[in-house]
Fold:
Amino acid sequence: MKCQICSNENLHKFLSLGNHPPSDRFLKKEDLNKKEPTYPLEVSFCNNCKLVQLTHAVDPSILFTDSFVYTTSSSGELVKNFSELVSNLTEKFNLNSKDFAIDIGSNDGTLLSNYSKEIKVLGIDPSESAKLAIQKNIPTLREFFNEQTAKKVSVKQGKAKIITATNVFAHVKELDSFMKGIKELLAEKGVFVQESHYLADMISGMEYDSIYLEHLRYYSLKPLIKLFELYGLEVFDAERIPTHGGSLRVYVCKKNVYPVSENIAEIIKEEEKAGLYEKKTFDDFALKVKETKTKLMEILFSIKKQEKKIVGIGAPAKGNTLLNYCEIDSNILDYLAERESLKIGRFSPGMHLKVLDESNVFSDQPDYALLLAWNLKNIIVPKLKEKGFNGKFIIPNPVPHILE
Ligand SMILES: [Zn+2]
Structure:
């Protein structure tokens, strides 16, 4: 396996989380007896360009087509983030009726729905969720984004002033074709904005559960700058944002179009300080991941010894990394509870935990709730208490503990 950015063949593998099925492949009942494909979930560090990445890339048609049941509008955090992003972009880059905005991985159209009606928009997304955007009359192309798609759009509809790719840029397997597509579609003064989960937050927050098969690269700023440089593009601004437990948003343009912000040098300095360019940081992280698993399992086993009931709260993709890595099955959790989700009625990939509607938690009153979307604990815990849940909460990361 070569580095996904610089082609270095000498990668340092520091973490192996075992074999996992795709994290969003929630199963229907009739699929439970069929063989479930699994793939090694291993992470490497490139000492040349500093990119942290998976060593095994699964075919995207397996990962992102019929099994993908995630909808952006179900996350209050993302809804707010996108509405702020679009209003900032509109102001900062003076968007008007002549402009064209594209969202790659547009899902159910939540981001695009924030643009003023006079701005022409287009979503590009092959997933099931794209059907929801089409139902809402948001123009959407149900295809993977690549050079070919970009050429087609560019000829038919023109070049884009804004291209956004949120929580998708780390998932792209054919990176070269994707990058060429961005370059092709970007207007002279166009801006490409990408948001991805941020490596600095993953390491400091022990967010190993944000590692999953769909997520091929774990970006810090330095390798991103290098990647865009390879295609004659320039990162001219960057900022840390709170989504997904900490993300990095970067702004990219054609060379020398916008002045380079001081934020860039500042973030690079922070990354150096956090050890993100050194192998040892990742070896230490891997060690701590193992310790975290041991500690969590001690908590769960001691509760089960007392014959108490535990349910999982939420069924996010990251939850499946945690469940499968720690092997938390139906002997430990009765079910996973979700709100307004297409996942309700299905079974979690790997551990085959049933996903039920959240209302079950209030009627069953299990003794403990394991918070799988633990990055949102400050929102979820008070909400569940307010709705009448009387049990205790188990927070799995960064240090597993029972919330008193
Ligand atoms: Zn590299």
